[in-house]
Amino acid sequence: MKISIITVSYNSETTIETTLQSVVNQTYDNIEYIVVDGGSTDGTLSLIDKYKSHIDKWVSEPDKGIFDAMNKGIKMATGDVVGIINSDDLFNSDRSIEKVMNVFNSNIELDSLYADLYYVSQTDTNKIVRRWITGEKRPFNKGWHPGHPTFYVKKKVYDKRGLYNIDLALASDFEVMLRFIEKYQISTYYLKEPLVRMRLGGASNNSFKGLITQNIDCIRAFRVNNLKVNKFMYPIYRLLPKLLQFKK
């Protein structure tokens, strides 16, 4: 079974080489690697070119943001399974994709998989700042959801249920997981180990304003999918467990 791994980037010269090396070093031997760049003006394209022999498809052109770029990558994908590793993230081990695909290859009818992840320091990916232990599936409206970088989905699910809703700004990744798992009840599997190291930061969690905007967009995600949520309690349900994940 083939897996398509997608990396989206924009002016990522300080981090993308770690990501590229992380994909290149994976032990699974049936990977289609796709890189979608937003028209970088720094050294990102030189680094992509350095690894072009390991990249099956890549494009660099303006886009409407990170989730529009992800949609482009998914449309380009020909694998049975699709996974996304952003240009400031890396796999936790060289066997991460092998472990993912062992599950899919053993469960042919499985639609999706999610796992745990580590948030790490921007400057030292060996320094774990937060451990996201996702746990077994629970209701989204009680604050549970998988870490998006650990979410692997059959291509046929995207073809049938749609791509990322780019109108939801900071919660497009949340919305696609909510739509697939909660609304359409696709089958999913919890792989109880960290798959990804994600650098702490980003628009949704590096400022109070970003956190507020993300929570507003998450509530919108419930509404566009006609799913019930308590708009007053949901931010509490969502944020409190995350605070407990930070390493003391």
Automatic annotation (TrEMBL):
GO terms for molecular function: hexosyltransferase activity. It is an enzyme of class 2 (transferase). Keywords: Glycosyltransferase, Transferase. Residues 4-131 form the Glycosyltransferase 2-like domain. The keyword Phosphoprotein does not apply. Its EC number is 2.4.-.-. The keyword Transferase applies. This is Glycosyltransferase family 2 protein. It comes from Polaribacter sejongensis.
